[in-house]
Design a protein that fits this description.
Oligomer: single chain
CATH architecture of the largest domain: 3-Layer(aba) Sandwich
Order of helices and strands: EEEHEEEHHHEHEHEEH
Mean pLDDT: 93
CATH class of the largest domain: Alpha Beta
Number of strands: 10
Helix content: 25-40%
Shape: globular
Distance between the termini: 36 Å
Bound molecules: adenosine-5'-diphosphate, magnesium ion
Strand order of the largest sheet: 6-7-8-3-9-10
Radius of gyration: 19 Å
Length: about 260
């Protein structure tokens, strides 16, 4: 098992009563797999990703990557956030190579690594551009190249296309599948967009809200290589309906319970 989340529990102290953000989370991601977790806002998606990234500490339970317990951030986990997190004063190439420099990689090796991953994301010609000269989709491609440059065991993505317009988002989804195909990286992405999850992943964890728990695991029997045409197939629509139904039922229950 590559990434394993066991009995994970996260509670936040607040001025009023404590908030249970995540309760009894058990999940796993195998080497080379593309897995999504979907849930409404407030279902603890970002908290889950931050715990896996080592940016938060669990209240109980643990995260293991390749058998090793996570106690903090590490180069074995690459992270891409929704909001562009590039350094505005650094060129594209400097942004991509920044983490490698911190790791003490020589300049020569760094240059090769950066140019390889800029090629993977199709931005070789923009290596000397500044982030402000790029569109939103291009900025996210730089962020993906930066995360991949450290050659992490797993790429963690927190609603990476949430801020993009519909057309750019579709292009980026297709692009991400190509990157996955080419790099064979394991990917764990969280999103509230059900169609996005069905389009991208091989397996989906459906989350409940307040507290965030795993309601269902859905294994998608769809071809590994996909393009947007698949979205029109009945099987694709069925998966989408099934998961939206689960989330809808969950929202109704929360309302009845006064949540
Ligand atoms: P999502 O990403 O699915 O929208 P989050 O993980 O951001 O959900 O949040 C889950 C719950 O935990 C929410 O109720 C949120 O208010 C709460 N929460 C998240 N981070 C903190 C924090 N640092 N302090 C207190 N409450 C938090
Ligand atoms: Mg979030």
């Amino acid at each position: 098992m590559y990434l394993e989340v066991a009995q994970l529990h996260k509670q936040f102290k607040t001025r009023n009563s404590p908030i249970v953000a995540l309760k009894d989370i058990n999940l796993h991601i195998e080497e080379g797999e593309f897995v999504c977790a979907v849930g409404a806002s407030g279902s603890g998606k970002s908290t889950l990703l931050r715990l896996i990234a080592g940016l938060e500490t669990p209240t109980a339970g643990e995260v293991r990557v390749d058998g090793v317990r996570v106690t903090g951030p590490g180069a074995d986990r690459g992270m891409v956030f929704q909001n562009y997190t590039l350094y505005p004063w650094m060129t594209v190439a400097k942004n991509v190579g920044f983490g490698l420099k911190l790791q003490g990689m020589s300049e020569k090796e760094r240059r090769q690594r950066v140019s390889y991953y800029l090629d993977v994301v199709g931005l070789s010609q923009f290596s000397n551009a500044l982030p402000k000269e790029l569109s939103g989709g291009m900025k996210q491609r730089v962020a993906i190249a930066r995360a991949l440059a450290s050659q992490p065991k797993i790429l963690l993505m927190d609603e990476p296309f949430g801020a993009l317009d519909v057309q750019t988002k579709e292009t980026m989804q297709q692009f991400l599948l190509q990157v996955w195909e080419r790099t064979r990286t394991s990917i764990f992405m969280i999103t509230h967009d059900v169609e996005e999850a069905v389009f991208l992943s091989q397996r989906i964890y459906v989350l409940t809200s307040r507290p965030g728990t795993i309601l269902r695991e859905v294994v998608l029997d769809l071809p590994r290589q996909r393009d947007y045409h698949i979205k029109r197939q009945p099987k694709f629509q069925d998966y989408k309906e099934e998961i939206m139904g689960l989330l809808r039922g969950e929202a109704v229950e929360a309302m009845v319970a006064g949540g």
